[in-house]
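INTERNAL TRANSFER SHEET
From: sequence group
To: structure group
Subject: ABC transporter ATP-binding protein

Please process the attached sequence and return the structure record in the designated field. Keep the field labels unchanged so the import script can parse them.
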Amino acid sequence: MTIALNKAGKRFNRDWIFKDLTCRFESGNSYAITGSNGSGKSTLLQVISGSLTLNEGACRWSAAASIPADKIFRHISYCAPYLEVIEEMTLLEFLEFHQRFKPLLPGCTPKRIIEELGLEAAGDKRIQQFSSGMKQRAKLAQCIYSDTAVVILDEPCTNLDQQGIALYYSLIDQYCTNRLVLVGSNDETEYRFCQHRLSIMDYK
Ligand SMILES: Nc1ncnc2c1ncn2[C@@H]1O[C@H](COP(=O)(O)OP(=O)(O)OP(=O)(O)O)[C@@H](O)[C@H]1O
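Return from structure group:
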């Protein structure tokens, strides 16, 4: 998978969030999108995921062939604090439900995922009864275990304790090596494994 931005610009009303951004993101690489609060990291990630459109320039997605913007969601998994989970479901129900729309990585099952997350004791608990760190583990799992070429992680360690951060790194090591990984963050703990860095502040 290759995602190419060409002279990309995004504004909300009259405020430009970024301008003249040209770059390429390729499978097998990980990229940190950095910048201060409100600088536009999440906005750029949403453009890359196809959920926001640009005001200037172009974002193009290609694998063996070009992928249209309205189909790219099939190839992307996304984890972010502003995305909700279905709180009325148990974690097992949630992972089984999600699997109907996006298949899991080969060999992964909802039960095995719950074990790897260390959430066996909570597998039958409704997500609304989870702590914020447990919810974040569930969101990371939904994203990383989905069989997609692109993994987008916006502030992935939100609410995680040291053990949760270790789990995050182990999921990245085990399941993300050959994929295209993008991390939006201003905390190096979340993106220190990324080979490439892009500061949104350079495109103001
Ligand atoms: N739908 C929207 N309508 C208008 N303005 C928006 C909208 N979404 C974001 N913004 C503005 O765009 C700017 C960039 O927001 P964004 O969430 O992309 O920043 P961020 O770098 O991810 O911030 P943080 O580190 O705080 O998560 C902010 O000024 C924000 O208020």
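Handover comment: The chain has one domain: 2-203. Residues 2-203 form a domain with the Rossmann fold fold (CATH 3.40.50.300).
Transfer complete.
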